[in-house]
Amino acid sequence: MGSRYYRISLCCDRLFSALIIISVCLTLAISTPGSWSRVESKTLAWLKAVYFINENLGWVGGSKGTFLTTVDGGRTWRQDKKFTTDNIRDIYFSDAEHGWLLCEHDIFADPSKPPSYLLKTSNGGVSWQAVDLPESHDKLFRLFFTRDGYGYSVGEGGAFWQMLDDKQSWKRVELPVRYLILDVVFLDDLRGVLVGGGGTALFTRDGGAKWERAVFSNSETTRLNSVFFIDRDNGWTAGTKGKIFVTNNGGKVWYPQPSRTTEDLSDVFFVNSKEGFASGNKGTIVETKNGGSEWVTVDTGVNSPLERLFFVGPVGFAVGYGGVILTNRPAPVTSPTS
């Protein structure tokens, strides 16, 4: 009887061990993040922005007028003749010809100039036209454009600039806060969300005429550096100390998610309602496959800050300090030579 019980027990133990191994393998298959590799940028500039309009054509901008272009989906990048020596903080193109840049003057070189200004092109960047913000002393950090071509920009001291109906002129709109505003997104013509310092998260339902404070499910506040919405209801915001929050009601109420990192996060981007990424200090990228219920850390191979993320379909790019451009595009498979 004892021998028979031992054999049954041993069989059960082996079966249990096998089930554990299978479970671990399935978990790894589901949660193991994809690899990222570095792309040659031929610059050591601090890259601040990246933007694509299709799977081939994209741009990267950064310090001292660095403005790189790719026409092969980010495999190679080129710097044409510089048209400014000022920092490029953000990029937006509506098509291959029409684009905007948010630029930052060197205030130490000429303190009389406003900290920030815009550049506009209508010929694919062959030439650029300066667009000044009237009587502005605001330092701005982000640009956002709606599908209808209306622009917004945010920055220090609660700065919120809105494009007028002529789509040329801009006006400053007062916000109910004076915190640094670091990102803005509009979900349609009326509904928008902005985030920034001091745990600031505001939402509007009337095109920005009035802003209301969002509610967080916990009392902890942190600087929020980026906000991204996949549709009108579902969005994420990321900030310092690895904090990530999610909303499912258009930014009115936010709930924390476990990011598995304590590094400051500078950007967040979702490919679809399930698959998302956040990037930040020390080469940090975290990835989720289930809408943020679980995040895993990606090995990027770099230790410098990653400022911005952008995805074209499944292909992603991260840019940052020291001319770093990373991509998750799989390396081409080469046939063995005979």
Please specify the SSE layout and strand pairing:
Elements: H1 2-31, E1 37-38, E2 47-52, E3 58-62, E4 67-70, E5 78-79, E6 87-93, E7 99-104, E8 116-121, E9 129-131, E10 140-145, E11 151-155, E12 159-163, E13 170-172, E14 181-186, E15 192-196, E16 201-204, E17 212-213, E18 215-216, E19 224-229, E20 235-239, E21 244-247, E22 253-257, E23 265-270, E24 276-280, E25 285-288, E26 296-298, E27 306-312, E28 315-320, E29 325-327
Parallel strand pairs: 18-22
Antiparallel strand pairs: 1-29, 2-3, 3-4, 4-5, 6-7, 7-8, 8-9, 10-11, 11-12, 12-13, 14-15, 15-16, 16-17, 19-20, 20-21, 21-22, 23-24, 24-25, 25-26, 27-28, 28-29
CATH class of the largest domain: Mainly Beta
Low-confidence stretches: 1-32
The fold-level CATH name of the largest domain is Methylamine Dehydrogenase, Chain H
Report the structural category: mainly beta
* Number of H/I helices: 1
Order of helical and strand elements: HEEEEEEEEEEEEEEEEEEEEEEEEEEEEE
Mean pLDDT over all positions: 89
Please give the domain count: 2
Strand order of the largest sheet: 18-22-21-20-19
- Gross morphology is globular
- Cα-to-Cα separation, first versus last residue: 64 Å
Radius of gyration: 23 Å
- Main β-sheet description: 5 strands, mixed
